[in-house]
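Bumping my old thread because nobody answered last time. Still need a sequence for this structure:
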């Protein structure tokens, strides 16, 4: 009972640490994009690059953090992450040009890796029979924090101004995160592979944990890598596109922010429900269905002239993005084991870090500038990404215990 209580405390602490980072990664750029465009006199493409640099940091540091945590330990890694994120948020107040804004975003992305990878590792070790559920809780907090804080950012911006708002939020994030980080230790003993796959028939038994070199020689690794690139691009692009789309339709800023809020709500909920439902129905089916639904909604969205329908469609897109992040972590554990989970998951997420940014928010921003705001083209190719991802993820399968990993073509 005492051990279970420690595990629950670890889940709460990990979620508290990732809350503020998620709010600033997924909510702040969308709310502040019009302000940055006006004050810096730049176009949508330049603002879209903010997320490119954030994701580039994810691509660089996800794998490294996965390696480092095996030597340093999750609690120390998370502590480093929350301190770096808190100080970086302070620095956002002094981002007076695009370069400094890009540096701010890159550092925030790096700090999020120090919290995200160790948190997912810790909660899966504490609850090996419900790893989709507990990974979903952490991911839910990461995504839903923006839905909670995006309207708050808008209110504080209007009432306090840009600099005072950032100073207040950074102080709260730094203090709360540093305290919570001290309760993120993992269990004293790692679970066995039999325990890791005791949750049900949808979680087939892997004979042992694969090394990074063995994992990259499987087809499943590369199918999941491509899925993270395409579905990640389609999801992350909505952060900067949602408010711009609403304004292009002639709706007020408050109404346009509702689209971003709806996306962030289901982005967070999808991380929880995606992880939970994948424990029941299987990772592949859960991800494939939600990706396909997101693709259809993207194709319909540019023809939408009703705010309520736009909010609904953005919600479905957010659900697909949230499911990617909620179910992909336990899927990696299904396929490759827990021992080197951090390094393998980080390596897969290089696709999300290095490709999702350029082909998602950056490309979509430049296309909008080039086509003078034609969302049919932008939402069309993002919808196609979702459909292709729906097909790709169905081929991600754990290797059977009796056979070695297949060599990738």
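Sorry it took so long. Here it is:
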């Amino acid at each position: 009972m005492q051990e279970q209580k420690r595990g629950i405390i670890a889940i709460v602490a990990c979620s508290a640490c990732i809350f503020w980072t998620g709010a600033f990664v997924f909510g702040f750029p969308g709310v502040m994009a019009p302000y940055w465009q006006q004050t810096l006199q730049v176009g949508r493409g330049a603002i879209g690059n903010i997320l490119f640099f954030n994701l580039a940091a994810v691509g660089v540091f996800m794998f490294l953090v996965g390696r480092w945590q095996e030597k340093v330990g999750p609690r120390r890694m998370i502590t480093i992450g929350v301190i770096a994120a808190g100080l970086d948020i302070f620095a956002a107040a002094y981002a007076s040009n695009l370069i400094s804004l890009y540096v701010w975003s890159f550092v925030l992305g790096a700090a999020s890796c120090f919290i995200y990878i160790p948190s997912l590792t810790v909660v899966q070790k504490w609850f090996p029979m419900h790893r989709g559920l507990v990974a979903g809780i952490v991911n839910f907090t990461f995504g839903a924090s923006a839905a909670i804080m995006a309207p708050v950012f808008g209110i504080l911006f209007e009432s306090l101004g840009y600099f005072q708002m950032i100073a207040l939020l950074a102080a709260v994030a730094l203090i709360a995160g540093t305290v919570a980080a001290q309760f993120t230790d993992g269990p004293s003993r790692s679970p066995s592979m039999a325990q890791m796959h005791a949750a049900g028939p949808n979680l087939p038994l892997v004979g042992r944990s694969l090394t990074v070199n063995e994992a990259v020689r499987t087809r499943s690794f590369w199918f999941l890598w491509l899925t993270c690139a395409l579905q990640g691009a389609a999801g992350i692009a909505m952060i900067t596109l949602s408010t711009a789309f609403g304004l292009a339709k002639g709706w007020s800023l408050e109404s346009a922010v509702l689209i971003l809020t709806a996306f962030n709500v289901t982005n967070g909920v999808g991380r929880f429900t995606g992880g939970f439902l994948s424990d029941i129905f299987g990772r592949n089916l859960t991800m494939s269905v939600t990706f396909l639904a997101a693709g259809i909604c993207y194709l319909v969205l540019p023809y939408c002239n009703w705010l309520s329908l736009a909010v609904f469609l953005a919600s479905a897109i957010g659900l697909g993005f949230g499911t990617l992040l909620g179910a992909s972590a336990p899927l990696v554990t299904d396929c490759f084991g827990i021992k080197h989970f951090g390094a393998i998951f980080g390596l897969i997420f290089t696709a999300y870090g290095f490709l999702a940014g350029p082909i998602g928010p950056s490309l979509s921003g430049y296309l909008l500038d080039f086509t003078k705001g034609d969302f049919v083209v932008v939402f069309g190719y993002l919808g196609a990404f979702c459909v292709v991802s729906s097909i790709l993820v169905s081929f991600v399968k754990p290797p059977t215990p009796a056979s070695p990993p297949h060599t990738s073509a």
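DSSP finds 16 helices and no strands in the chain. Let me know if any region looks off to you.
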